[in-house]
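User: My collaborator sent over this chain with a note saying "see what the structure looks like." That's all I know about it. Can you take a look?
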Amino acid sequence: MTKIDVFAHIFTKEFGKKLTTLAPDAAKTVEYSRRSMTDLEVRERLMSRHPDLIQIITMGNTPLERFVKTEDAVELSRIGNEELAELTLKRPDLFYGAAGMVPINDIDASIEIIDQCITDFNLLGIQLFTSLERDSLAEPKYRPIFARIAEHDKTIWIHPSGTDKDRGMFSWPYESSRFMLDIVNAGIFKDYPELRIVIHHAGAMVPFFLERVRTIMPKHTEKYFKNFYVDTALYGNTSGLMCTLDYFGVDHMLFGTDAPMGAPNGANGNTSRTIMAIEKMSISDKDKEKIFQENAIDIFGRLL
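Assistant: Without extra context I'll predict from the sequence alone. Here is the result:
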């Protein structure tokens, strides 16, 4: 059975070169220090340990508005998206598809780039980065981005990107959870009920605090939390995955590993741990197949 990893990170060559020229601080991120993020041969060797594995790739943790000025963010988005598209075309044995980048500090350019991602590059959607350092993505000025993705019937990947000293251990789950709350309260799903948003790290804090969510949120609002899709990137942790499934349901869980992050490079991130954690879940083989493959196929289409 093919396993579709829906949240795997990468840095493409020209994008990385241009970004670190414009913003040397961007090269200091944890992601960029790993060869498996930048060297396709290294990545292929690691992936070969799981011959049934194929990835949906997203650019590493680089919210462009943090690192570069607006016009450079637009250029970098175009460079990166073209490279992501080229990789998925050249290596369909490794990459099922990709999520594009948008320069959210230029909404008009973001809309044009979304259209290019879908129409010209055949990407599966876009990735957005949350951050408590700026205004919420649920603010009205960002609404056209959600509207355009919904219009195209594509998907948004959400990655937290705070710079807290805990390196994202606790701050990132809070960021993601706050994003989810903001989206629900802003009525995004009410306006675009078919919109698909994938939350990294198994839905962050929401599954664990599900009873607080149910108790505090009005029922007619709380129901929209279940519109989110979540990956399985908990670095293992079967009990955590069961908690996530209990709230979101098996049909909204997608196999995702955070590769090549987490464990040392030699372990290909947490791919092995994540697979083992899913295999240990107290669910049917059919439900495991949904998580590993079928849910992604239902969303993104059949494998070629």
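A starting point for your reply to your collaborator: The chain is about 45% helix and 15% strand.
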